[in-house]
Amino acid sequence: MRIQLNGAWRELAAGSSGSMGSTGATAEALPASSPTLAAALRLCGYGEAIVATAVNGEFVPARARGEIHLRDGDRVEVLAPMQGG
Amino acid sequence: MDLLRLYDSELTSRLLLGTARYPSPAILEQSVRASGAGIVTVALRREGAHLRTGQGFWSLVRSLGVQVLPNTAGCHSVKEAITTAHMARELFDTRRIKLEVIGEVDTLQPDVFGLLEAARLLIQEDFEVLPYCTEDLVVAERLLSAGCRVLMPWGAPIGSGRGLNNVFGLRSLRAHFPGVPLIVDAGIGTPSHAAAALELGFDAVLINTAVAQARDPVAMARAFALAVEAGRAAYLAGTIPVRDMASPSTPVIGQAFVP
């Protein structure tokens, strides 16, 4: 399945992290379908980074990332603190 | 003590500083310290999994020991602004949000209709909303009725450095809402603009580009701090009324050569 991660298409290979280009994530193999947002973040290499997330324009609190299952074509936004005026 | 009160915060400085467009993180840090600002504004942007530029920035801001005011900069719709506010509340652990809903790309002026709608929704969710608005009295009244307890009218378009474009409108806003903390946000280019805002009775100013893009941002941060302090002192001291005709400052009584 594919998701749009911060505007770029990413392949979430079922049962493998190989196509994610992430490091140290082999133990986090995705199930054949419906990976959670938390799993996808780990596979994409976010680790313990301080980020806020949204799926398809809706905020997903950190505590809910393990319960939100992604679907093909989902738009995932991963935001962090940044300079602002 | 003359404190700035914004929701439940009491601040000694009436200068709020933005954190964008500095030449380096070190200059940003020194500028914040030189400004004496008690609040800095921050934003949210997409984070790369491996670069993680946001993590370093956040560490720097936390080390400054100042309050953060997250913004919804770049949002052009109510939905975008609300989602961003939700994300900011979690990320920065604050209910406070500088609410921006941009309505026009050339001037970056607020979409006041979207702003009001977003403010209403966020206040229902217990946010403390500081709306970036115009000097329009009716809009201000609606925002206050919706539950905003601070307003942030623009001086001029963001980053333009034009100062207080509509002094009459700003003066009118100040007069209509004497008890409401008003912060001039956007468009201030020089310390004299900031001083003028404080002299008009505005409670504070938010500066970003004028400091960050100065030839020497740290020195400019200090200059703004002095100007804000001077402007506030002048407001409290009471400025003289403007007159159309001259009024001699030197006493005429005892003058040797009377016409």
Q: Tally the beta strands of chain B.
A: 10
Low-confidence stretches of chain A: 16-30
| Overall strand count of chain A | 5
Which strand order spans the largest sheet of chain B, edge to edge or round the barrel?
Answer: 5-4-3-10-9
Based on CA atoms alone, the radius of gyration of chain A comes out at 12 Å
Structural class of chain B: alpha/beta
Instruction: Tally the helices of chain B.
Output: 9
Helix content of chain B: 40-55%
Which regions of chain B have little confidence, pLDDT < 50, spanning 5+ residues? none
**Roughly what fraction of the amino acids of chain B lie in strands?**
15-25%
Q: Note the gap between the termini of chain A.
A: 38 Å
Strand order of the largest sheet of chain A: 2-1-5-3-4
Could you give the order of the helices and strands of chain B? EEEHEHEHEHEHEHEHEHH
Rg of chain B is 20 Å
The geometry of chain B reads as globular
Protein architecture, described:
The complex is a heterodimer of chains A (85) and B (259). With 85 residues, chain A is mostly beta strands. Chain A is 8% helix and 28% strand. Chain A has a 5-stranded mixed β-sheet, with no helix packed on it. Residues 16-30 of chain A have low confidence and may be disordered. Chain B has helices at residues 25-35, 53-63, 78-92, 112-124, 137-146, 167-176, 191-199, 209-212, 217-237, and strands spanning 4-6, 9-11, 15-18, 39-46, 67-70, 96-99, 128-133, 152-153, 183-185, 204-207. In chain B, helix 3 (78-92) packs across helix 4 (112-124) and helix 4 packs parallel to helix 5. The mean pLDDT of chain B is 95. Chains A and B meet through strand 3 and strand 5 of A and strand 4, helix 2 and helix 3 of B.
